[in-house]
Structures are given as structure tokens and as C-alpha cells.
Amino acid sequence: PQNQFNIRSYCDLTEDLELDLMLYYVDNLSFDNVPNYIRFDARLGWHIDDNTELSIIGRNLFERLHPEFREIRGGSFATESERSFLIELMHRF
Prior knowledge:
By secondary structure, the protein is mostly beta strands. It contains no helices and seven strands. A five-stranded antiparallel sheet has the order 1-2-3-4-7, with no helix packed on it. The N and C termini lie far apart (about 40 Å).
């Protein structure tokens, strides 16, 4: 893409609770006929204790899916990014 940018915000809501927001813009790929897109991701994280964190993550929240690029090896389909939600539990040893 000729133009792209992202804006991120990392916010501690309380001592144990975090909210992260990410906004991405990617310009169109004119040679592949892939349109521009805006992607919004969010994460809510809770520090259960010093070593354990639980997060709820949402990706591509503005759109159900969007094409990001075309298959280079002769394929004619677009590779698309879908909306997704995750729950992540991380424990550090």
C-alpha cells in the first residue's frame, strides 16, 4: 500500500485492569484490486496476580471480514481477515 498508519492507546483503568485500543488504516492495492480498509482491535486485560493475566480480545471489530491481499502464486482469490474474539490466559513462571 502507498499509505498506511495505526494509532494505539494503552490505558490502565485500575491497578489490575488494562484497556488497549488499536486502529489501523491500510490504503488500497491498486495492482491487485484490493480496496483500502480500516481495522479496529480492542483488548481488556485483568492482572489476576503478579504472574497471571486474563485477556479478552476482539479483532477486526468494524467489519465481519475484508480482503487484505491476493494470492500471488497464480490464485485468483483474496485472502480475507475475519472478525475474531479470543480469551487468553497467560501465566509467567
